[in-house]
Amino acid sequence: MTIDNKHVVALNYILHTDGENNEKVLVEKSDAGNPLTFLYGVGMMIPKFEESIKGLTSGDKASFTILPAEGYGERNPQAVAQLPLDMFNESGMPPVGAILPLSDNQGNNFQAVVVEVTSEAVVADLNHPMAGKTLYFDVEIVDHREATEEELAHGHAHGIDGNSGH
Questions:
Q1: Is 49 helix (H, G, I), strand (E, B) or coil?
Q2: Of 1, 53, 65, 86, which is most buried, counting CB atoms within 10 Å of its CB?
Q3: 3-class DSSP state for residue 150?
Q4: What digits encode the pLDDT tens for the residues 89-139?
């Protein structure tokens, strides 16, 4: 059996992006004792990521590249917001570089990075932190199985054994 839609997948990964002087920079990696576990084919992962692991099975390793257009898109220089200072009366003024959890009018959650604090506003970059970046993945499939009806109904994996996560 190979990875396909409606499977729970557990994998270890290492993610790099481009740095200065064409050097790859480590972004993150999974902990060998705590692999990334997700429900395949329900939109939890970047489509190109799922496409790149489809058909693999336990023990398989793969390396693949996801270009910005296939990942988080290109950076949009207009995706900047001037947030009113009174938004931060309770929490305190965030420093430059802070990541702010925000919600839009439709209830979608996202993160913004503080790029400047002025006397009039907190300036936040609304681009995804990985926007404009090429993603280099090295993955190893730890295990996979068919999802349970409960996992499919909930829209997420309950761990690689089907009993975790709640």
A1: helix
A2: 53
A3: helix
A4: 998 999 999 999 988 888 888 889 999 999 999 999 999 889 999 999 999
Indicate the pTM of the whole model: 0.82
In the structure encoding, which two tokens stand for residue 79, read together? 């995706």
C-alpha separations of 124 from 76, 95, 103, 106, 119 in Å? 13, 11, 13, 19, 14
Which amino acid is residue 21, in one-letter code?
A: N
How far is it, in rounded angstroms, from Cα 20 to Cα 74?
A: 18
DSSP string, 51-107: HHHTT--TT-EEEEEE-GGGTT----TT-EEEEEGGGGTTT-PPPTT-EEEEE-TT-
Strand partners, 66: 135
Cβ contact 52:15 at 8 Å:
no
* Residue 96 contacts residue 114 (beta carbons within 8 Å): yes
Report the distance separating Cα 145 and Cα 163, nearest Å.
13
The two tokens of residue 38 are 């997700």
Question: Are 148 and 162 spatial neighbours (Cβ–Cβ below 8 Å)?
Answer: yes
Q: How far apart are CA 13 and CA 62, in angstroms?
A: 10
Whole-angstrom Cα distance, residue 69 to residue 134? 9
Q: Hey, which residues does 103 pair with through a beta bridge?
A: 109
| Amino acid found at 154 | H
When the pLDDT of each residue in the chain is averaged and rounded to a whole number, the result is: 92
